[in-house]
Amino acid sequence: MSAQNQAVNRKTVKDIMRAKGRTPLVCLTAYDAPTASMLDPHCDILLVGDSVGMVVHGLESTVGVTLDMMILHGQAVMRGSRQAMVVVDMPFGSYETNADQAFLNAARLMKETGCQAIKIESGTYAAGQIAHLVARGIPVMGHVGLRPQAVHVDGGFRAKGRSCAERDMVLAEAIAAEKAGAFALVIEGVADDLAEEISAQVACPTIGIGASVQCDGQILVTPDMLGYFDWTPKFVRRYGDLRGQITAAVQAYAEDVRARRFPGPDETYRLVKAAPDSP
Ligand code: KIV
Q1: How many CB atoms within 10 Å of residue 88?
Q2: Closest ligand 1 atom to Cα of 62
Q3: pTM for the predicted model, two decimal places
Q4: 177 alpha carbon to ligand 1 midpoint, in Å?
Q5: Count H helices, E strands: the chain?
Q6: Among the atoms of ligand 1, which is closest to the Cα of residue 29?
Q7: Is 188 a catalytic residue?
């Protein structure tokens, strides 16, 4: 039975906030309905990340991802899940201008996908946007440290907080997001002691990716942890080898087709001869 036919009873912002300092939150990215249905029973949060641009659409960075792409993938993940909280990323260019732009685009994401919260990559400048959205009923997850949407300013995807000035900046970003009302914070690509300091200083749960085991939760990009790619960042642990399994399956299919072993009798329709009319 698909998730569509089962009762929907999702984790709420309050459930996620209560997890601070308790059992770590389990979070993964999701982009489509069937994968979401497999992840959903095991996860507290499914993030429809703008990483979709890179891991699904083959883009070089997340900069090219649009609001329409996020809506389409958000809708699919909502259809495939029923108990995890679903958070959808605001893509580059959809929230930075001012609070009004952020609200109109976040409201569109919430209305058209049905997701429960949005995430923004939150430099200190974004505190105004976060406060504006939260005050108007939109829960916001912040994202500090390595911010992939800033790849062109940073000159690549590089870990943050290596110098004292950079550490102070990342800490300031985290505190600004929390003070503005973020209900949770993703901390990406920072030294573990910085992630621990942030986790100790903010009241909301922190969710690490390339951060620290002491964060209040962990997230990975699902195709990375399932082994879709030959290369993954240092912080990814591979829990599967789907690239190897898919390659072997497709090779076997191609061999069967070329040798006329597929389709076989069980995979073929036969016309059943109609019984002769009785006299
Ligand atoms: O877009 C994404 O997948 C993310 C995660 C890396 C947290 O932001």
Answers
A1: 30
A2: 1
A3: 0.94
A4: 17
A5: 11, 8
A6: 3
A7: yes
Q: Which two tokens stand for residue 260?
A: 């006329």
pLDDT digits (tens, 9 = 90+) for 184-209: 999 999 999 999 999 999 999 999 99
Of 121, 173, 188, 197, catalytic = 188
Distance from residue 194's CA to the centre of ligand 1 (Å): 19
Q: How far is the CA of 21 from the centre of ligand 1 (A)?
A: 22
Residue identifier of the C-alpha nearest atom 6 of ligand 1: 221
Nearest CA to ligand 1 atom 1: 49
Q: What is the CATH number of domain 3-225?
A: 3.20.20.60
Tens of pLDDT, residues 30-62:
999 999 999 999 999 999 999 999 999 999 999
Other CB atoms within 10 A of residue 79 CB: 18
Query: What residue ranges do the domains of the chain occupy?
Result: 3-225
pLDDT digits (tens, 9 = 90+) for 232-276: 999 999 999 999 999 999 999 999 999 999 999 999 999 887 777
